[in-house]
């Protein structure tokens, strides 16, 4: 097979795999995407579409100055990200966050790739290690990697896959929410957009007074949970995605300072801040479905319905989807991968997405973006150009490949703690305040990533 026709094989059609494919075809590299759905399903996916969002429909903060994930959005846009382009096109109101109509988003990504002449989409499971004649492979199988491939990787590397639980929040039909009790508002009215006169179309808020809140916490703690399977018993939860009942068990006020915090919200019926709130975020473009923010759970379905209907405003709630929980797996990337995401034990395999130990939709797509660019450079006989460490992309890559301690490696969201600090002081010679420091870090990152986006593309073109 000639170098021109030899494709890069991508195993997995999630956010990382589709973004990697897009970056490759932008560099005129043919790709074959191997997606096992619908031939083999998973414990979390509901459709066979590429880039399906299986948990929340939110890509989190879109603030590029004071939030690291918002900065990552901005950097990916500068790199021509397909995932960010589709997200922007299918955005739904969510305050300062970037949330999407999940069905429209995934269909757009799939259509863009399926219609491209350099893309071949094969619906099949790659069971075990890829065939030896696949010279360039990106493994983007995500946290729900099929057992046969997981076992093959474990045997190859001598490393057991690490694992943690990820949970799914319920979705409620909008028409069944009592808007005489609930109201529309974003915290501090951030990103408010008008759905109707006097209404902010971002979050629906259900208020709880102190007695209602304490009764709700007690119900969560005593509610019947789904039992663990034998192989799940010793698997830790990821701290950034704890089930609501696990948080409740940590103390009576944990939820009031976590997903149910009432700060920045005023109940229009009382003119006061409630003791706690349950927020629901729009989940589709029609505005007919709303996601219960932070309410991922392992409660049995009947218990979910019973307990969540005690929330003021949700007494008659009809659930389009109840919460659930599944095990996510990832490799020990600092030990197993080189700086361009290749497996040291078999360099023809490059890894991308959540299987590398990044956490979150955006981070997964970002690692896919970098893997695609690195693979494109290699395909064209060039050395991959790494993004500067001063950028969100570079900081995330560095953490995954060598910055984290391999002995204690756990999934990580992008955050400003991964960036090299700025030794700068304000005009009065004092260290910058926290927000100002983040703004400076973001400004430096965007300046540095612009140069990398062009040079990396040029190296692969």
Explain briefly what this protein structure is.
Helices cover 31% and strands 17% of the residues. It is built from 12 helices and 19 strands. A 6-stranded mixed sheet has the order 6-2-1-7-19-18, with helices on one face. Strands 10-13-14-15-9-16 form a 6-stranded antiparallel sheet.
Structure description:
The chain is α+β, with helices and mostly antiparallel strands and 461 residues long. The chain has two domains: 8-161 and 331-446, FAD/NAD(P)-binding domain, CATH 3.50.50.60; 167-327, Elongation Factor Tu (Ef-tu), domain 3, CATH 2.40.30. It contains twelve helices and 19 strands. The strands form five sheets. A six-stranded mixed β-sheet has the order 6-2-1-7-19-18, with helices on one face. A hairpin with a 2-residue loop joins strand 18 (342-343) and strand 19. The relative contact order is 0.17. Mean pLDDT is 89; it is low at 193-200.
Structural features:
19 strands; 2 domains; 6-stranded antiparallel sheet; FAD/NAD(P)-binding domain; 461 residues; single chain; 6-stranded mixed sheet; alpha+beta; 12 helices; Elongation Factor Tu (Ef-tu), domain 3
């Amino acid at each position: 097979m000639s170098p021109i026709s030899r494709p890069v094989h991508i195993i997995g059609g999630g956010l990382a795999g589709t973004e990697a494919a897009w970056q490759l075809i932008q560099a005129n590299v043919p790709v074959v995407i191997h997606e096992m759905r619908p031939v083999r399903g998973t414990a979390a996916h509901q459709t066979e579409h590429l880039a399906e969002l299986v948990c929340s429909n939110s890509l989190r903060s879109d603030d590029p100055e004071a939030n690291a994930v918002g900065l990552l959005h901005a950097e990916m846009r500068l790199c021509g990200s397909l995932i960010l382009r589709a997200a922007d096109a299918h955005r739904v109101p969510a305050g300062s966050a970037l949330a999407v109509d999940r069905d429209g988003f995934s269909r757009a990504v799939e259509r863009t790739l399926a219609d491209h002449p350099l893309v071949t989409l094969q619906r099949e499971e790659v069971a075990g290690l890829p065939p030896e004649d696949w010279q360039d492979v990106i493994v983007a199988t995500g946290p729900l990697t099929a057992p046969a491939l997981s076992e093959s990787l474990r045997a190859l590397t001598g490393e057991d896959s690490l694992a943690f639980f990820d949970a799914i929040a319920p979705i409620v039909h909008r028409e069944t929410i009592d808007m005489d009790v609930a109201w529309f508002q974003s915290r501090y009215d951030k990103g408010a957009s008008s759905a109707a006169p006097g209404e902010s179309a971002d979050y629906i808020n259900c208020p709880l007074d102190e007695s209602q809140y304490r009764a709700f916490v007690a119900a969560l703690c005593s509610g019947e949970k789904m039992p663990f399977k034998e192989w799940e018993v010793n698997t830790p939860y990821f701290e950034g995605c704890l089930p609501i009942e696990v948080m409740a068990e940590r103390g009576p006020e944990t939820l009031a300072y976590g997903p149910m915090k009432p700060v920045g919200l005023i109940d229009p019926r009382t003119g006061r801040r409630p003791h706690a709130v349950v927020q629901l975020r729009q989940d589709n473009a029609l505005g007919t479905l709303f996601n219960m923010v932070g309410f991922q759970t392992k409660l049995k379905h009947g218990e979910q319905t019973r307990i969540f209907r005690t929330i003021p405003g949700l007494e008659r709630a009809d659930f389009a989807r109840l919460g659930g929980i599944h095990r996510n797996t990832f490799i020990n990337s600092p030990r197993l991968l080189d700086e361009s995401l290749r497996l040291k034990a078999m360099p023809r395999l490059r890894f991308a997405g959540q299987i590398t130990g990044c956490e979150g939709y955006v981070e997964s797509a970002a690692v896919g973006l970098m893997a695609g660019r690195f693979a494109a450079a290699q395909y064209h006989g060039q050395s991959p150009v790494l993004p500067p460490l001063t950028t969100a992309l570079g900081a995330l890559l560095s953490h995954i490949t060598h910055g984290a301690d391999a002995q204690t490696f756990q999934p990580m969201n992008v955050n400003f703690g991964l960036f090299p600090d700025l030794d700068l002081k304000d005009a009065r010679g004092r260290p910058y305040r926290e927000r100002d420091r983040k703004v400076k870090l973001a400004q430096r990152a965007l300046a540095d990533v612009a140069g990398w986006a062009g040079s990396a593309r040029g190296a692969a073109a």
